[in-house]
């Protein structure tokens, strides 16, 4: 650790004096001349806090390495995303991070990049290619940890409401954890399942949750494994005056979520999250390892963190910045690290 | 079919269906028949209903406003920005949003009457413009107290209690804390628009413009001014919807508002069929919004998944359009025959 800090300081000093080349001698090729390394981020999804934060992580890690980053944004157009991979190949980039996408459209495009001698990393999309490592936030673990906390707080016998929209990959993976926990704990009864992605999502879910709570007054736990869902359920619980009687368990976190969890008598008991910025940093570091000829492994998993309401209150956490300070495992994941890779400044 | 029966069906069919639906859910969905559930059906339709009343005004003058959904979400972001980042009061936030809505309406209206851009295209352009514009000040992030700003500081402003009151306060009516503010606002606006369109000279002139713009112009109506006013009403009502949404959510959520647009247009179109009006009208729009609301709440209570709800919404809309265009034209046809 100390050595890494020293290196960071040295690197900063080096950057300010000589434009970064002095200490780059310690870096393996091609990072001895980082300004000549060009990498591309090809995105499928970009709208929303999660994706914004992911991008900032990618940008920060790329900046720390000193490489030239190009961002291609296909805005949920699968065909365009494949074209953008080809554009990146034509541009002569050294590495590509593929962020989300559809297996069908990205598999051939990723193969073309690999054939062109480009290193490729895929985040949250399976491109079925042995040369391409997968960076993942473990959605299964996200769901599992939240549910374990629910059982810890409420015992293994409760009546649950479940918010779920099938067909959305991360939600489907979180659903696996829910099914498993239900099977292992016959005392957990699923009274209602609802959910919608009509936006604003929180508002639409709130409308649904109001009627679900009215129709099923016995519900005392709601599993809402996506923060927009949890926000909607919380609005409904507050409006129904049930905030003392119902506990909400969710996944993902943002500054707004933190303040919602910390409202007096908030029903939102816990959430489990991976910092999207950290996932972005890990994606770039994984790519850097490959470019330097090291093997990051087939699967790079960024572990999630449990965040409870009690913890937030005890530590007086007000926003994502505070959360990172009070919970170091949230701000940095020891995944895909190497002595020579400078970490972004905190 | 007997002519009287047909008339009757066209006039009251939709309201009967509404009653039947409410009865059906009362019997089969536990907890549906209660004053609280009636109120939250109203609450769930209040915001789309207000937007739908705005669309109704533009439909009356033979136009259309595709930008309402994004005006609403822009107002949502703008109110959050005003309070959380600029640290202004609730009054300023509401005033700024209404002004923004009126301005967007004015620009829409000017594009349509002065630049002669077709209404669908002008408001479509405005929709995209606003979806982008509302995200520029925060680089695509949602707005909440405690968020980090670009200069490294933290946003200290909060949603003021007075503002949240708009979305969360409930008036006592028979039961304690029963009727939320948005429902009252919705009912008031519905009443006002109904009176304005049906019972004032201005409203009637707007209908005249909608049925024959040229004729209305020839008898001395200031067609351009009325059209612009219709778009301004639409823009302002959409921002009222956005303000109420922000007050309920308590944060500035980025959202495109496309679902708000589609739901409110559906409500306005279903409104054509109510009482056999076969034209846009405020009472019909409110009833149409209520109809969709009852259906969705009932289906949710019976654990129907979201795609089922979309399907049913679509089916209702198609049925309403058949009522309006086919049956009414037959009735009209018989009369002239």
UniProtKB/TrEMBL annotation, chain A:
Superkingdom classification of source: Bacteria
Main subcellular location: periplasm
One Gene Ontology CC term in the entry: outer membrane-bounded periplasmic space
UniProt keyword terms in alphabetical order: Signal
Location(s) in or outside the cell: Periplasm
Pfam families: Peripla_BP_4
Signal peptide: 1-24
Family: Belongs to the bacterial solute-binding protein 2 family.
Domain Periplasmic binding protein per the UniProt entry, residue ranges: 39-294
Descriptive protein name: D-ribose-binding periplasmic protein
Molecular functions per Gene Ontology: carbohydrate binding
């Amino acid at each position: 650790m100390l050595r890494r800090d020293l290196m960071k300081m040295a690197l900063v000093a080096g950057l300010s004096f000589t434009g970064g080349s002095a200490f780059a001698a310690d870096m393996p090729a091609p990072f001895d001349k980082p300004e000549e390394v060009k990498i591309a981020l090809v995105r499928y999804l970009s709208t929303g806090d999660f994706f914004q934060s992911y991008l900032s992580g990618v940008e920060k890690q790329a900046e720390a390495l000193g490489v030239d980053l190009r961002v291609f944004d296909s805005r949920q157009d699968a065909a365009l995303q494949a074209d953008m991979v080809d554009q990146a190949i034509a541009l002569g980039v050294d590495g590509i991070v593929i962020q989300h996408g559809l297996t069908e459209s990205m598999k051939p495009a990723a193969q073309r990049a690999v054939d062109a001698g480009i290193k490729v990393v895929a985040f949250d999309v399976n491109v079925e290619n042995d040369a391409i490592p997968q960076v993942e936030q473990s959605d299964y673990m996200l769901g599992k940890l939240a549910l374990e906390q629910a059982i810890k707080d409420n015992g293994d016998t409760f009546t649950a409401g479940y918010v779920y929209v099938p067909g959305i990959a991360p939600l489907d993976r979180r659903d696996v954890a829910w099914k498993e926990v239900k099977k292992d704990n016959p005392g957990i009864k699923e009274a209602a399942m609802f959910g919608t992605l009509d936006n604003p999502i929180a508002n639409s879910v709130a409308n649904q949750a109001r009627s679900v709570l009215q129709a099923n007054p016995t519900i005392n736990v709601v599993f809402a494994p996506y923060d927009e869902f949890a926000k909607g359920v919380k609005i409904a619980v507050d409006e129904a005056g049930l905030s003392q009687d119902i506990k909400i368990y969710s996944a993902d976190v943002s500054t707004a979520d933190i303040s919602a969890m910390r409202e007096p008598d908030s029903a939102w008991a816990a959430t489990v999250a991976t910092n999207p910025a950290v996932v972005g940093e890990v994606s770039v570091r994984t790519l850097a390892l490959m470019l330097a000829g090291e093997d990051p492994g087939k699967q790079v998993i960024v572990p999630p963190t449990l965040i409870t309401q009690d913890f937030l209150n005890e530590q007086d956490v007000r926003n994502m910045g505070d959360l990172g300070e009070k919970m170091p495992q949230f701000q940095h994941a020891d995944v895909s690290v190497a002595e020579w890779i400078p970490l972004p400044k905190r | 079919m007997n002519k009287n029966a047909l008339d009757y069906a066209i006039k009251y069919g939709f309201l009967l269906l509404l009653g039947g639906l409410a009865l059906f859910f009362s019997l089969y969905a536990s907890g549906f028949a209660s004053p609280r559930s009636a109120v939250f059906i109203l609450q769930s339709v209040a915001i789309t209903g207000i937007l739908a009343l705005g669309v109704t005004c533009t439909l009356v003058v033979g136009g259309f406003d595709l930008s309402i959904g994004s005006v609403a979400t822009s107002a949502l972001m703008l109110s959050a920005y005003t309070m959380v980042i600029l640290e202004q009061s609730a009054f300023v936030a509401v005033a700024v949003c209404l002004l923004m809505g009126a301005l967007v309406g004015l620009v829409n209206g000017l594009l349509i009457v002065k630049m002669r851009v077709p209404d669908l295209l002008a408001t479509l352009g405005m929709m995209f413009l606003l979806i982008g514009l509302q995200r520029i000040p925060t680089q695509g992030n949602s707005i909440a107290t405690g968020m980090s700003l670009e200069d490294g500081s933290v946003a200290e402003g909060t949603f003021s209690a007075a503002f949240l009151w708009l979305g969360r306060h409930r008036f006592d009516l028979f039961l304690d804390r029963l009727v939320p503010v948005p429902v009252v606002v919705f009912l008031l606006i519905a009443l006002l628009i109904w009176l304005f369109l049906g019972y004032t000279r201005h409203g009637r002139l707007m209908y005249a413009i909608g049925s024959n713009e040229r004729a209305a112009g020839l008898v001395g109506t200031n067609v351009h001014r009325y059209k612009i006013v219709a778009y301004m009403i639409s823009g302002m009502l959409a921002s009222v919807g956005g303000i109420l949404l922000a007050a309920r959510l308590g944060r500035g959520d980025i959202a495109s508002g496309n679902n708000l647009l589609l739901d409110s247009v559906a409500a306005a179109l279903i409104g054509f069929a109510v009482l056999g009006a076969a034209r846009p009208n405020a009472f019909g729009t409110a009833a149409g919004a209520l109809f969709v609301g009852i259906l969705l709440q009932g289906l949710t209570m019976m654990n129907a998944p979201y795609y089922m709800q979309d399907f049913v919404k679509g089916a209702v809309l198609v049925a309403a359009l058949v009522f309006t265009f086919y049956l009414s034209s037959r009735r009209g046809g018989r009369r002239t025959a």
